[in-house]
Specification:
The protein is built from 4 helices and no strands. The protein has 98 residues and is mainly alpha-helical.
Length: 98
């Protein structure tokens, strides 16, 4: 099975399970427990982690990719704050020693 065919088959498994759940009157996304171990291996091999697989199948909206950038900006701001505090402490110590 080619990679693209496997990915499409895995996505189809997810979409079919979602349709079956809706037919039963359940308003939820498919869960790992809804599939056999072999199907889970196939889905994860072709589509990645289960949440990303649901996104690839079009059942779940894509995650916010801005999260990594916001986290980086937060870390930079914290580092700058620590550096400023360290410099201020050094200035204070230098003034006290004189």
């Amino acid at each position: 099975m080619k990679r693209a065919e496997g990915a499409e088959y895995a996505a189809e498994l997810l979409r079919n399970k979602h349709a079956a759940l809706e037919a039963q009157g359940l308003e939820r996304l498919p869960q790992r427990s809804d599939f056999s171990a072999e199907e889970i291996v196939l889905i994860k091999a072709h589509l990645g982690p289960f949440p990303r697989a649901l996104e690839a199948a079009g059942l779940k909206p894509p995650r916010d990719d801005g999260f990594a950038d916001r986290k980086l900006q937060k870390r930079i701001a914290a580092k700058r704050k620590r550096t400023a505090a360290k410099i201020e402490k050094q200035k204070t110590n230098k003034q006290n020693s004189e």
